[in-house]
């Protein structure tokens, strides 16, 4: 393996680990703030997570799943801020 391939592999490992942690924390926080709601953060392309980004969906208590882009302003603002650390510019080399 070349040094470049090693760095790409390490970047993917670190990203995957952090993405998992952020996903769990987001789920915990959303559940706590909404008193029972659920959330999920998913990669658009799990084979190349740096290519397409992610999508965040939420399910307020006793409601259906919704993509955050379909939520009202204040609900969306909280989730946008949570998701900002995963923006393309923050994970690209």
Write the topology of this structure.
Blueprint (H helix, E strand, L loop, with lengths): L2 H31 L4 E6 L5 H4 L1 E6 L6 E2 L5 H11 L4 H4 L2
Antiparallel strand pairs: 1-2, 2-3
Q: Could you characterize the architecture of this molecule?
A:
By secondary structure, the protein is of the alpha+beta class. Helices cover 54% and strands 15% of the residues. The chain is built from 4 helices and 3 strands, in the order αβαββαα. It has helices spanning 3-33, 49-52, 73-83, 88-91; strands spanning 38-43, 54-59, 66-67. It has a 3-stranded antiparallel beta sheet with strand order 1-2-3, covered by helices on one side. A hairpin with a 6-residue loop joins strand 2 (54-59) and strand 3 (66-67). The longest helix has 31 residues, at 3-33. It is elongated, with a radius of gyration of 15 Å.
From the structure above, extract its key features.
single chain; alpha+beta; 3-stranded antiparallel β-sheet; 4 helices
Range of helix content:
40-55%
What would you report as the Rg, rounded to the nearest angstrom?
Answer: 15 Å
* SSE run: HEHEEHH
Shape: elongated
Count of distinct strands: 3
- Order the strands across the largest sheet as they lie in space: 1-2-3
Unreliable parts: none
Oligomer: single chain
Main sheet record: 3 strands, antiparallel
Q: How many helical stretches?
A: 4
Task: Please report which band the strand proportion falls in: under 5%, 5-15%, 15-25%, 25-35%, 35-45% or over 45%.
Answer: 15-25%
SS-based class: alpha+beta
Average pLDDT: 83
N/C terminus separation: 19 Å
